[in-house]
């Protein structure tokens, strides 16, 4: 930041990159949130005198801005009703399901939309207030769809980028939303709009042509005033070196050995790690395992399925329903197929530190990533990074963005239970040579496209 507290480079995201913790003396302290985006952007933030604009995660609380790790934290407050209507409502019960192939029905409420617009305006204003003349602003994800155009209106001098971390749907689904034109025009305020896959970028360009009547040639849209907007794919990745180092850390290896022991030293460990979200295909995946154990295709004495579901959006109806369904399903399967003290599915509804995740990845013989739709899915890439040896196998849904890059995974259609069951068994029983061949190729991909390549490619194209 300069002396007048203006920033040359800003990230605007629904969430701030810090979590509030309590130190040994009981005082609140802010710690960097785990996650690749923050790791990738921190060096740029420091170099450019950056600011991160976002919500700290609690309703009805106003927090003063502060400096953190050499850049500025700019909190945007949200009231309780805004959390309900903007965050839980329009972001996570309208856009989220709509953009994930409507695997749950999206809800359309005019009040949610009004609040969504008002909150997007507040984020845009907060960014406009701290941006230096001609600064670069990078807006993140579907919660802030309208910020690029609102910000351009307030500050035409800024260079504005937007990245959508989730899929961008085809016209047939997108057209459902009553405010489709406004949503498309929200993104047209940016100079560069990034998507996970080329398909998302072309869906967007097609819709922009149709709904806003703009002209487009290749990846470039020309606005009526002559301004250019580019729409391109930038597949996001992870800090693969960081995960590899974690997996090789002796403390993590010790934790891994302990975990294996706790699971009863099984011959085969299948692992799923997901946010508890209906897009992740958990119902189908758990049913598939239930049948494999029931039909003796997996032996409960030899195999275990460890599923971690991280709590998420717990007040949203579809998420509550999902939690109950999974509890019921897991309980039923374990009561029928498991033994006393020896469940076939070890299920935890909890979040774990990255060290424990790395320990889990490293003991898993088969990683099971079977979403019904997913923008990318970083768990698949983290698993590969935690296997610098040739051990392991990845079962991956064709509907995850990652399947476009990790072509050597055992690819499944999560709606096809029989196909998924067959592939799960194949992934576990293929020869070490076959499994190693696949892992090697995927490792090459993951280590040659890391999170800082993603950020650098996007920022380069934005002209930073
Ligand atoms: C997805 C979204 C992110 C979001 C994250 C966690 O990855 O793309 O924008 O931050 O889920 O969800 P939450 O609702 O807890 O922020």
Protein topology:
Layout: E1 7-15, E2 18-22, E3 28-32, H1 36-48, E4 50-55, E5 66-68, E6 71-75, H2 80-99, H3 110-130, E7 131-140, H4 147-154, E8 159-163, H5 171-174, H6 180-187, E9 192-195, H7 198-212, E10 215-217, E11 220-222, E12 228-233, H8 240-248, H9 250-262, E13 268-275, H10 282-294, E14 303-310, H11 317-337, E15 345-349, H12 354-363, E16 366-369, H13 378-385, E17 394-397, E18 410-412, H14 417-429, H15 432-448, H16 451-462
Parallel strand pairs: 1-4, 1-7, 4-6, 7-8, 8-9, 9-12, 13-14, 13-16, 14-15, 16-17, 17-18
Antiparallel strand pairs: 2-3, 5-6, 10-11, 11-12
Helix pairs in contact: 2-3, 3-4, 6-7, 8-13, 9-12, 10-11, 10-14
Distance between the termini: 17 Å
Quaternary state, please? single chain
How many DSSP E strands? 18
Radius of gyration: 23 Å
Pfam family, one: Glyco_transf_20
Organism: Luteococcus peritonei
Family: Belongs to the glycosyltransferase 20 family.
Protein name: Trehalose-6-phosphate synthase
Please tell me about this protein's structure.
The chain is α/β, with parallel strands linked by helices. The chain contains 16 helices and 18 strands. The longest helix has 21 residues, at 110-130. The radius of gyration is 23 Å and the shape is globular. The two termini are 17 Å apart. The mean pLDDT is 96.
Summarize the entry for a quick read.
This is Trehalose-6-phosphate synthase. Helix content is 44%, strand content 21%. With 464 residues, the protein is α/β, with parallel strands linked by helices.
Structure keywords:
10-stranded mixed sheet, Glyco_trans_20, 44% helix, 16 helices, 6-stranded parallel sheet, single chain, 18 strands, binds 6-O-phosphono-alpha-D-glucopyranose, Trehalose-6-phosphate synthase, globular, alpha/beta, 464 residues
């Amino acid at each position: 930041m300069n002396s007048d507290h203006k920033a040359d480079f800003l990230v605007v995201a629904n969430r701030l990159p810090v979590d509030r913790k309590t130190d040994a003396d009981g005082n609140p302290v802010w710690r960097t949130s785990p996650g690749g985006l923050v790791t990738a952007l921190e060096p740029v933030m420091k170099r450019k005198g950056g600011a991160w604009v976002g919500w700290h995660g609690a309703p009805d609380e106003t927090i003063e801005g502060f400096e953190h790790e050499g850049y500025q934290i700019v909190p945007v407050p949200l009231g309780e009703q805004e959390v309900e209507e903007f965050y839980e409502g329009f972001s996570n019960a309208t856009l989220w399901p709509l953009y994930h192939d409507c695997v749950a029905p999206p809800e359309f409420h005019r009040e949610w939309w009004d609040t969504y617009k008002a909150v997007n305006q507040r984020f845009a204003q907060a960014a406009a207030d701290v941006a230096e003349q001609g600064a670069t602003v990078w807006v993140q994800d579907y919660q802030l769809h309208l910020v690029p155009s609102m910000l351009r209106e307030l500050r035409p001098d800024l260079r504005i980028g937007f990245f959508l971390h989730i899929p961008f749907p085809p016209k047939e689904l997108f057209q459902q939303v009553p405010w489709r034109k406004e949503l498309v025009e929200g993104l047209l305020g940016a100079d560069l709009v990034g998507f996970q896959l080329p398909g998302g970028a072309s869906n967007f360009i097609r819709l922009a042509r149709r709904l806003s009547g703009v002209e487009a040639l290749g990846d470039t849209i020309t606005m009526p005033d002559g301004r250019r907007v580019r729409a391109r794919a930038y597949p996001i990745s992870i800090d693969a070196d960081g995960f590899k180092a974690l997996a090789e850390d002796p403390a993590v290896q010790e934790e891994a050995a302990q975990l294996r022991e706790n699971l009863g030293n099984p011959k085969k460990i299948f692992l799923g790690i997901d946010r508890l979200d209906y897009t992740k295909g958990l119902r189908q995946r758990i049913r598939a395992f239930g049948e494999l154990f029931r039909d003796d295709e997996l032996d409960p004495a030899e195999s275990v399925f460890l599923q971690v579901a991280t709590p998420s959006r717990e007040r949203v109806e579809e998420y509550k329903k999902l939690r109950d369904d999974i509890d019921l399903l897991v309980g039923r399967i374990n009561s029928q197929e498991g033994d006393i003290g020896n469940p076939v599915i070890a299920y935890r509804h909890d979040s774990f530190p990255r060290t424990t995740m790395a320990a889990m990845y490293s003991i898993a013989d088969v990683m099971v990533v079977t979403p019904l739709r997913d923008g990318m899915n970083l768990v698949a890439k983290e698993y590969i990074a935690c296997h610098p040896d040739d051990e392991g196998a990845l079962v991956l849904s064709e509907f995850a963005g990652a399947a476009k890059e990790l072509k050597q995974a055992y690819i499944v259609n999560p709606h096809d239970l029989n196909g998924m069951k067959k592939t799960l068994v194949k992934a576990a029983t293929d020869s070490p040579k076959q499994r190693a061949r696949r892992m090697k190729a995927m490792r090459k991909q993951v280590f040659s496209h890391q999170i800082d390549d993603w950020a650098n490619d996007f920022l380069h194209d934005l002209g930073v």
